[in-house]
Amino acid sequence: MTSYDDALPGDRRLPGNPLRGAADSIPPSGLVLLAIFSVQLGAGFAKELFAALPPSAVVFLRIATGALVMGVVVRPRLRGLARGDWAVGIGFGVTLALMNLTFYEALSRLPMGIAVAIEFLGPLGVAVAASRRRLDLLWVALAAAGVVMLAPWTESASVSWAGIGFALLAGGCWAAYILLSSAAGQRFPGTSGLAFAMIVSAVVIAPVGATTGGADLLQPELVLIGLGVGLLSSVIPYSLELQALRRMPKQVFGILMSLEPAVAALIGLLVLSEVLHVQQWAAVLCIVAASLGSTRTSRRA
């Protein structure tokens, strides 16, 4: 759930640096696919944690892990920041916290594939708005058709209106995250903007996560699983994607990332035994096709 277009300048103090030699031996497309599977595996394990911890507490564990690693490795500079830098950095961090919180709330109410597919409307909307071509209306219509097919017009135990609402909010936060990522990239060197935002995000989500999680957050086994979720969902995929972006065009990266809803549905099936109906699979594929189409159209433009 990140945009890395502005995180590419040569700051070598990155989480993936110790694994750089191994990553260089893997084709960049393979790194992107590994990152996608890592994110969705993290989401799958997070959903299993919901039986013991509320979504907000799991979000806190995930964000705190990422903030700790990024803070230690990148060490973002706080002195000498202008007022505008603070505003962008704090807004970036708050958006990151809300994006993860709303997505995990959606994940607790929807199958993984459906939650990720609906959330993907956020970056799709940003891409369409930036392109402004008539052909983009086709991708909007295709994505809208997918959402209509996912909506619980009939009673469905696996889909709820509340879950769809949270997923749409997460998508809106993702769109804002992409725009703020661009702004942060212009104000902060290297990856320090993202590190700063993750620290802010951890501070914002800590009171909610600590209150809802309570004493359960002190159970070692839950903390270890939560740390694993943080590594799989944030640190590992971020490192892999950053390495891939150094060796492949951003447009190709975007096309590969469009597969994420389908991978989420597959992981949901294999890890969580979430079986989607034919109509739900068709809806997910409609949103994947809309994202692929939009990415290819913007590439030609």
TrEMBL record:
The segment(s) forming the EamA domain are 162-293
Q: Which residues cross the membrane?
A: 49-74, 86-104, 110-130, 137-153, 159-180, 192-210, 222-240, 252-272, 278-295
- A Pfam family annotated for this chain is EamA
InterPro entries hit by this protein: Diverse_Substrate_Transporter, EamA_dom, EmrE-like
Q: Which residues form the signal peptide?
A: none
Q: Which UniProt keywords apply?
A: Cell membrane, Membrane, Transmembrane, Transmembrane helix
What's the main place this protein lives?
A: membrane
Q: Provide a GO CC annotation, any one.
A: plasma membrane
Question: Membrane topology type, per the record?
Answer: Multi-pass membrane protein
- Where would one find coiled-coil regions in this protein? none
UniProt key word Cell membrane: yes
Which family would the database say this protein is a member of?
Belongs to the EamA transporter family.
Q: Spell out the protein name for this chain.
A: EamA family transporter
Lineage of producing organism: Bacteria, Bacillati, Actinomycetota, Actinomycetes, Streptosporangiales
